[in-house]
Amino acid sequence: MSGPVLAPEVSEALAAGRPVVALESTIISHGLPWPDNLDLARAVEEEVRAGGAVPATIAVIDGTLRAGLDAEALERLARAEGIAKLSRADLAVCIARGGTGATTVAATMIAAARAGIAVFATGGIGGVHRGAERSFDVSADLQELAQTPVTVVASGAKAILDLPKTLEMLETLGVPVIAYGQSGFPAFWARESGLAAPLRMDAPAEIARAHLTRAGLGLPGGQLVANPIPAEAEIPLDELEGLIAQAQREAEAAGATGKAVTPALLDRLRALTQGRTLAANAALVRANARLGAAVAQEIARQRAEGAPPRAGPL
């Protein structure tokens, strides 16, 4: 299998050079409770459509990697319990076993690149976990950004992470980190992390040119577009820090490790904030879908007008 099975709408759009935006599925299976997860999945797809692009939610269904899910598959993912959470390491195994699983940022990037989808919109990327100097817990998302040529629109890295170390790792890996519309790096539920973003861009056309120019230079990897959460939905970082530290202590005491850490922390923070993080998640993912659609539109337009020629590998 060379790539995912494309939904007819996605296949037609790609063949015609129209904009398509990839969407992950772990936000459905692991990010939010039922039925909020299904409602958000549908709303995010509608945001992409409203922005003039075609949504391609990605998941593995009964051993088939799919880009573009019908209503039945979306609901199945939303209702299922104990569904696999797939990254680069276990994506192929799930497919080989005929399993069903939701794709993380890394796995979604792989599928998007195989399908020829240039833009992926999500909530927040994974990164370097707090205490990684002891646990060595670093998300595969960072390495994926360094090697897979997809522009990822997210609200920075999840606020539960060690953000300074995450930015340092992205710099080491040669990943462009672009703050959209501001100079500071956002922190998921918070518009500002207190850290400067390496790069700033203020227009989707500029982001699209950077994507195409990177491909033209033959550089591996993608770029991270850090889109701050809408101001009305923000939870400032100074309100969150104490709660994140508490959730971290509780997760460690419960023995959460590996892929279980992030869902455990997010669940606890949802309780500690009386659901405010849930509302913030919905707002930022929808905003990222809108920006992703705008960037995908610009990439399609600039390609039609004559994108930079692709050079050989450096």
From TrEMBL:
Family annotation (InterPro entries): Indigdn_synthA-like, PsuG
Cofactors that this protein relies on: Mn(2+)
Cofactor, how bound (note): Binds 1 Mn(2+) ion per subunit.
EC numbers, comma separated: 4.2.1.70
Reactions this protein catalyses: D-ribose 5-phosphate + uracil = psi-UMP + H2O
Transmembrane annotation, as ranges: none
GO biological process entries: nucleobase catabolic process
GO cellular component: cytoplasm
Active site: E24, K158
Family designation: Belongs to the pseudouridine-5'-phosphate glycosidase family.
Protein name from the UniProt record: Pseudouridine-5'-phosphate glycosidase
Protein encoded by which gene: psuG
